[in-house]
Specification:
SH3 type barrels, 4-stranded antiparallel sheet, 3-stranded antiparallel sheet, 3 helices, about 20% helix, elongated
Length: about 170
């Protein structure tokens, strides 16, 4: 029974394909007579005036001085000494340094600075922090620094910072 249905479907399909298609062929031929390709002509190009390049007489946009701000004569007067030997506490930011004590030997006073579980003795004139900070004054409760920072114009500006004595808290710990 299945074979009979399949044979019947094939016969119907063959009948559709082999039928008279003369009217379709005639219509296609009639439509093809009137078809002509139409390509619009390209628009005429307008000539643009020739302009001479005057960039050679102007500023060079890639000049290094144009990229950085102009240096004034006063910028070198306050700058740090780049030729001196750096001290160990200059490799740490000031925020990571903690004053934990003070030592007095006669008239000389030293501050005890803790960083990374190590203790360092600092006296007036020593450098610490990453902004060329020099210790200017040590008291029993704080240490004063004079730092040199570069502003937006490239000038060196002095800034004063302090480290206060960190009291150890032992309540309940």
């Amino acid at each position: 029974m299945k074979a009979f249905l399949i044979l019947g479907a094939c016969a119907l399909l063959a009948g559709c394909a082999g039928g008279n298609q003369d009217d379709l062929q005639a219509w296609m031929a009639g439509q093809a007579k009137n078809l002509r390709g139409q390509v619009k002509p390209t628009p005429e190009l307008k000539p643009f005036p020739v302009v001479a390049y005057a960039g050679a007489q102007g500023d060079d946009p890639f000049r290094a001085a144009r990229m950085e701000p102009d240096r004034t004569a006063s910028s070198g007067a306050l700058g740090p000494d780049m030729d001196r030997r750096r001290e160990p506490l200059e490799s740490y930011p000031l925020e990571s340094l903690h004053m934990v004590g003070v030592l007095m030997q006669g008239v000389t006073i030293h501050a005890l600075i803790s960083v990374n579980n190590a203790l360092h003795q600092v006296k007036v004139g020593n450098y610490m922090g990453q902004n060329f900070g020099v210790v200017t004054k040590i008291t029993e409760h704080e240490l004063s620094l004079r730092e040199l920072v570069e502003d937006a114009y490239g000038d060196w500006v002095e800034r004063t910072s302090t480290l206060t004595l960190q009291e150890r808290q032992e309540a309940g710990k």
